[in-house]
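hi! just following up on the protien thing from before. the input was this:
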Amino acid sequence: MKKLVSAGLSTVGLFSPPLAGRLTFELWRRPLARGRLRESERAIHAAARVEVVDGTVTYAWGDGRRPILLVHGWRSRASRYAGFVARLLDLGYSPVSYDAPGHGDSPGPIVSILGHQRIIRGLADRHGPFEGVVAHSLGVPFALYAVREGVAARRLVTISGVAEFGYLADAFCHELGLGPKVNRALRRNIERRYFDGDDRIWTRFSVAAGDLDLLVIHNDEDDVVTPQQARALLTAYGPRARFRSTSGLGHSRILTDPDVIAEAVAFLQGSDVPEGLDLSA
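and the predicted 3d structure came back as:
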């Protein structure tokens, strides 16, 4: 199917890059499947206090003290953090999360990074300030931008995270074998449909240094978000950032790995994680 879609869009792009850009945008903005609740997540999921706020399903565990925000990625859901929630509860934290619009149990439509900022701001008003934040994949730029715009958090853990906003368009076009003309047309559609034509979004929503400590965790075999995105995070945060590389976990299993959970939670507790692998080497 992917080969057929790629061939079709490439052919359209030869004759009309704007049309190909519109068609690519419609694919780009729609998760093809919702993440379903897994049996291993069911008990933690059922234990949450669930609220629906402006159509978004939110979750909270614990007694409300020492809240930790958990932000999931594309085609995922809050229950993927079941291992984190269990560990954090054992240590006296109160995890907070949400199913993004169009994901998990939340209805659509999909919202932009600004929509996520509003959701996270609302959770902070209700449950914060946060002791820390954990974000995975596409949830990373959402979390980083919300913190940069005023959501209080002491420490932040990124896992398999996107750092450069333009990567969202570039990686999608690369996966489908689409050329630079279609890429530019896709970017213009993103600017127009979500951001009133603002072409500065590629810088505005990319990672920039924030006033908190950062732990960057990435797998060296991640085939969804290249490890080079971890380099961008480390460069932006400089001495405030620490890095941990994993091997053999890919893009998704890294989120449920016991060692990753343990190290991330230790960092949130304030442990001094030594400097990790230098990606610039």
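Strands lie at 49-53, 56-60, 67-71, 94-99, 130-136, 153-159, 213-219, 241-246.
DSSP finds eleven helices and eight strands in the chain.
cheers
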